[in-house]
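Q: I have three molecules that I believe assemble together. Could you output structure tokens for the complex as a whole instead of separate predictions?
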Amino acid sequence: MIEFKNVSASYDGELAVLNDVSFTVNDGDFVAFVGTNGAGKSTTMRLANGLLKPTAGEVLVDGVPTTALKTSELARRIGFLFQNPDRQICCNTVREELLFGFAALGEEGPAAEARVDAIIERFGFEAQAEPYLLNRGTRQLLALASIIVLAPPTIILDEPTTGLDFRECVKVMEVVRDLNEAGTTVIMVCHDMEVVGDFARRVIAMTAGRVVADGATFDVLRDRRVLKEAHILPPQVTEVSLMLGRGEECPAPVAAANTVPQMVQALAAARGVEATTVEVEAIG
Amino acid sequence: MIEFNEFSFRYREGAEPVVRDITLAIPDGCFVGITGAAGSGKSTLTYAVNGIIPHCYPGDFYGSVTVEGCDTVDTSLTDLSRLVGSVCQDIDSQMVSTVVEDEILYGLENFAVPKDEIPGRVDEALAAMGIADLRDRTIDSLSGGQKQKVAVASVIALRPKVLVLDEPTAELDPASSVAVFDLLSRYARENGTTVIVVEQKIALLSDYADMLVIVDGGRIRFADTPDAVLAHSDELLALGVNVPRATTLVNALAAQGLYEGPAVRNVAGAAAVCKEVLA
Amino acid sequence: MAKFLEYVPGDSFLHRMNPCAKLIGAVLFAIACFVTSNLVFLVAMLVVALGLALYCGMGRETAGLCKAVFAFSLILAVVILLTTPHGAQLVPLPWGYIGTGSLLAAVTVVVRLMAAAIPLFLVFYVTKMNDMTNAVVKQLHVPYKYAFTFTSTVHFIPVFMNDMAGIMEAQTARGVEFDGSFVKKVRLMVPLCVPLLVGSVRKTNSAAIAAEVRGFNLRTRESGYKEYPMRAGDWAALAVCALLVAAGIAVALLG
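A: Yes, here they are, computed for all three components at once.
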């Protein structure tokens, strides 16, 4: 569990980048932080895993303030995937890279090696490959794997799909979804609203260092005030549904549809026809 | 006019050609969007236009690429850069200046634009990108979106016939991405500039492009208007190319027999189709 | 706060000075600090240097800089302290002793390095990179390629420092504890140079290409749009710096 209690923060003691932010992320949550660049999302992530300490208020991880936790203890509780995998990768082979986290925590040994080998198999990595020669998407997956191999109860992802193509994006997000279904708490910063709509169950919208909305994904993404204040656009189908919903005779299911299948079913029903099952691959 | 004629290229350190048998004609003033999965060769196509291939990255070059009649192999990189302005992927490392104004001056000075013409060109470029107020700011203090606008302005000050941009919005949030594309397309329309953009964000690309080029495994799979290309949404997804959700929705409606007509590229188009279905 | 060696906008006399005059002035100032070992003179020079920094509003940047130079010169000072047995004996050592003279020499080194370094670094904080390049090319006839290489190197320092900070942050998040002894910190940082180097090679490569497609190869001495005339103030400043060198020599000869 991660709790923010009236947190403010700044860099170098200058202008506050975060102002009186409070929220609680419960175990097993899947939360997306949305908002424009500079809204304070990345700063919030840094505070959550103790890389940055608040100038006012408290950040609690499992009830303990981050200021009282050692780096290694924080790393054990929270895995952090940075936007740029190249800042994280520092070993000569994929296998060494995956073992590195265990070494940093002083937990080397046969158990660690077994876990590393299992994850190499699961992701289909080449154990002896040189990380820098892999393509961007695979490096991102490696960075993710080197964090989840440590099995932290919470993972934080800073724009996990930026710079990836559609297939890589699906792959990364499916790994994340599986983790969440197995009980890992997921917190991500994401600009791609289709990804947010497809995967997150809860959205926290930020603007200018404040939280402007916190609620179930589509409650937040259908709230015109929030969309305007946080300068975000909803996922495309939601936007279509919001546009149609303004019309007076719009059937309720159309005005509430958020996914392609929902919208197709709703429109078919309005026309009095039965729609066959619509399957759409995740991620817009 | 830009012409690719049976163009193939293999980087010296690569085993296989990254692009093969590319034949494509881009008319003047066309806004071209190139997309494809990672490693499909889409960036290589832009390098062939601005001459980075073969002048900076050597390799085996087959066929020909001409820009305004100049063969990119025979023309020096410097001469090509008079025709083709390039905005590279890593904006931070392409900045040579501390202050915005100096960044715009840099190319103008190098290409020996007459000194009495320079102030006008600087004003014009800053205005075209809507950043006249940033003139005296240090580049360091700018946001990603503002830096991108500076990078574009520093190139359009040279008034190139062709503008090539490699993933200009990769680091930007959606609002700034739209702003960059808005300014870029308006500038190109007003000046008849040909624009070639490589971009992962296909929803953005299809909204602005006259021609959408889909590259897969080094070959062009589609090169047509966005509407025509997006009609093949299932095939695009199979190639690892994303499709705007609005397009997927309308194509799904078509598959259900609820709609007959061309594919759409954006939310407005999808909303219109849905209204038609409801009516 | 400005990054290391990055231009800070301002309108002080130093900001408005001719870039070449600033550079030559700073070099003369440094020379003046090295021609004499008179501690009083050097302390006076340090006060002048600090005064200049405060005058153009670079107090914070200079404080950070002083810390770095101080740390570096301290190492030298310790070496001098242990290896130059001069003056009245204070502490006996197995191979000699630490005397009042050694102490004086050590303090002199610290003061001298700080006094000499401040104006040199200050030049970068008060001069736009392009002005510096263009002025030395136009007026000092330095070949453009050398000038550009030099200023680009300086320009990349903060970029790499920022990268290193990002890499250390990413490793801290994985549980690597950088807070600890200096030796341990260095040992942990060495392997991180790999990602830093990979990143730098990519960056410098794309920077070179980006400059080339904007006509880098066409640039000549005449290319610069702005002119950098020498004004009365510039000559005066240079004269003052030359006098400082003369004063330093005089102090050295008389002392």
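A: One point stands out. Residues 144-220 of chain C form one domain.
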